[in-house]
UniProtKB/TrEMBL annotation:
Residues 1-19 form the signal peptide. It comes from the Bacteria. The keyword Signal applies. PROSITE patterns: PROKAR_LIPOPROTEIN. The lineage of its organism: Bacteria, Pseudomonadati, Bacteroidota, Bacteroidia, Bacteroidales. The keyword Signal applies. This is SusD/RagB family nutrient-binding outer membrane lipoprotein.
Length: 537
């Protein structure tokens, strides 16, 4: 991140406030009747642009006048991507902030601010334009799916959000996370119904191609996207509301359109000027391999390691894959030492590489967990789905055949900190192997499923971090230095990001409602609704 951009992000809260989002946009979009037919037609002429904005804003690459890469870095890379164990930004000027749990308010508020100022209002407006128009059923359905995809990432980051009551002029517009999830499922119902009706009434499969940036060229693919997303969200709530999880997972798996099953169906953003922001951050030299993923991929002798990362350039350790642990200061040894550690493979992630949001491999692992939990309308075993997930990931990344890998007894390696010395070495916390058969109970089977899903979801840290918090897997190395002033437990690790503190000052009533809905302190140590601390089978 350039230093000028670093300064800008510290000031952005003064420009982007929750009040401006929920007051300004609500005054423009108070009620459905705010749009008469003339305005609807006028706005629809720009509807494709709206779709571009929404899709570019999920894996954030929307340019609101200050470029695209640095907003995404604060939106995701300096938070979720690091806390998930995938990456570490070792720019020395950042070593006293998020990496050591001294959370930088400008960074932690970015996902909230950018989404509510630039993305969610556009999605909300688009649903108003299309919801009552028969000729727009397919666009209405697609909008709802994208809205859920964008906003579940926000509630999974912060907890309570403004969603179902947005634009309704209610005194308290905040949804608890439970309310938000139930609203997501309702919106997915509406989306699938709209797209299904569109097709049954003779709509063309490719009627959605003009709005497609997410590898959904047909209406049927959009329904598969919705079903797969529903399955993801169903498993997310499985520890806190088994009845809801079971009902929604069954609905996803029993739908006649199915879920995505092969890598050519991956939901991924590309085209229309979109550039993968991870490549931009890599161009700044700020995307190093995390210590946990180095431990896992090295121990498993996983062929994806050379696809994801480059070997270290450290003297006497060239051709090895070395990761940077979270919570190390630049002063822990030579600050330039870690810069010789493994870096993202910039041949794999380029500006033109699609930004993956949801993969077929992930969907197979979701099916494996559903089967493990007794949700099995397709009569498929957890092992079958697990192995299909691994093979699908290998296929996605061009890693060859996974048959031998699936019999491996390899275990993650201990972490040796060459920079800081023996006192900073860490024993591997993960002892599971890729071989599904050596698990002795459901908990061990779940660990295998989630660990492999974590590998397969790379480099999408938002989903990886959410699942790690929900399940406890994979077992990440603990932060080596914790400067949270007691708000985040080192062993329990960070659970969420705080709300925008600038918004708290500008709209204290809204902030109070958010904190009440959260049910705990507004810091990184408070668990979300679905984060129960144990896996309830």
């Amino acid at each position: 991140m350039k230093s000028s951009k670093y300064i800008s992000i510290l000031c952005v809260g003064s420009l982007l406030s929750l009040a401006s989002c929920t007051d300004g946009f609500e005054s423009d979009n108070k009620i459905n009747g705010s749009f008469d037919d003339t305005v609807k037609e006028y706005d629809f002429q720009k509807y494709t642009t709206n779709f571009e904005t929404i899709q570019k804003g999920i894996y954030f690459n929307y340019d609101w006048g200050e470029g695209t890469t640095w907003p995404w870095q604060t939106f995701q890379n300096l938070n979720h991507d690091m806390f998930s164990g995938y990456f570490h930004d070792f720019a020395s000027k950042f070593s006293d902030k998020n990496t050591v749990y001294a959370l930088e308010a400008g960074w932690t508020a970015s996902a909230w601010n950018y989404t509510y100022n630039y993305i969610f209002p556009v999605a909300h407006k688009s649903t108003l334009i299309t919801q009552d128009e028969a000729k727009y059923k397919h666009f209405y359905g697609a909008t709802l799916i994208l809205k859920v995809e964008a906003m579940h990432r926000i509630t999974d980051t912060y907890g309570p959000i403004v969603y179902s009551k947005f634009g309704k002029n209610e005194t308290n517009s905040v949804d608890t996370q439970e309310e938000a999830y139930k609203a997501f499922f309702d919106d997915l119902d509406k989306a699938v119904d709209a797209l299904d009706t569109y097709l049954k009434e003779g709509g063309k499969e490719d009627g959605v191609k003009s709005i497609n940036m997410c590898n959904c060229p047909t209406a049927s693919r959009w329904i598969k996207f919705a079903n797969s997303l529903r399955l993801r969200l169903a498993m997310r709530v499985s520890n806190v509301d088994k009845t809801l999880a079971t009902s929604e997972a069954q609905k996803a798996l029993e739908n006649s359109y199915g879920v995505i099953e092969s890598s050519d169906e991956n939901i991924q953003i590309s085209g229309k000027g979109y550039q993968n922001p991870l490549a931009g951050v890599a161009g700044w030299g700020e995307t190093y391999m995390g210590a946990t993923i180095a431990s896992v991929l090295n121990g498993y002798e996983d062929p994806r390691i050379s696809i994801y990362y480059n070997p270290a350039t450290l003297a006497e350790h060239t051709e090895e894959y070395l990761g940077v642990p979270q919570g190390v200061y630049a002063k822990d040894g030579d600050p330039n030492y870690y810069q010789s550690y493994s870096f993202i493979n910039t041949q794999t992630i380029t500006a033109s590489t699609p930004a993956v949001l949801l993969t077929a491999a992930e969907t197979w692992f979701l099916r494996a967990e559903a089967s493990l939990r007794g949700i099995n309308p397709k009569n498929e075993s957890a092992k079958q789905c697990y192995e299909a997930g691994v093979q699908t990931s290998f296929s996605q990344w061009g890693a060859g055949d996974a048959s031998l890998y699936l019999t491996s007894k390899g275990k993650p390696t201990d972490y040796i900190n060459y920079a800081a010395g023996p006192g900073k070495d860490m024993k591997a916390l993960i002892t599971t192997t890729p071989n599904f058969d050596d698990a002795v109970n459901q908990e061990e089977q779940l660990e295998k499923i989630i660990t492999q899903k974590w590998i397969a979801c790379w480099p999408e840290g938002m989903e990886a971090w959410a699942e790690q918090r929900r399940t406890g897997y994979p077992k990440l190395f603990k932060v080596q230095t914790n400067n949270s002033n007691g708000t985040i437990d080192t062993d329990i690790m960070i659970r969420r990001l705080p709300f925008s503190q600038d918004d708290a000052k500008k709209d204290p009533e809204q902030y109070k409602n958010l904190c009440t809905a959260l049910g705990g302190a507004d810091n990184g140590g408070t668990r979300l609704w679905w984060d129960t601390g144990k896996n309830n089978f």
